[in-house]
Write a structure and sequence with these properties.
flat; 148 residues
Amino acid sequence: SFIDFLAFKSDISYWRNRKSTAGISSRSVSIEFANQAIILAYLQDNGASLLILVPSVVGLAIQGWKVLKVSTLGKNQDKGGESSESVEISNKYDQKATMVMMYLLLPLVFIYSLYSLVFEKHAGFYSWGVGSLASCVYALGFVMMTPQ
C-alpha cells in the first residue's frame, strides 16, 4: 500500500545516511530481521493475502540490508573515538535490559506454547511451531522496546 511505500522510503533514507552505529543496537537490528522472517512464515502459514505478504517480504529484504549496513558500519568505525565509547555504553545497557526482560518473559512464552500444544487445534507441528515462534516474537518485541 501507499503507507507501506512511504514507511519503506523513510526507513531506507534514514539508514542510507547513517555514518556510525552510535546509539543503535546491532543486536536489536539482527533480532528484528529474525522476527520479521518468523512473522512472514506465520502469515504464509495462515494463508494471508498477497496484499499482506508482499510488504512483509519487502520489509524483510530491507531489514536484511540494515543488518548488513550495521555490520559494515561497526567494522569501519574508528577505535577509541567518542562514538565508539557511546556504542559500548549503548551495547552494555542494551544487553543488561534485554537479559532481564528475557528472564521474565520467556518462561511465560514457553508455558503458553505448551498450553497451545495441548489444548488448541493446529494443522500440524509446523503450524504449532510457527505459531509458538510468533508468540515468542511478540514477547521479544516487547523486550526489544525496553532499552529504548
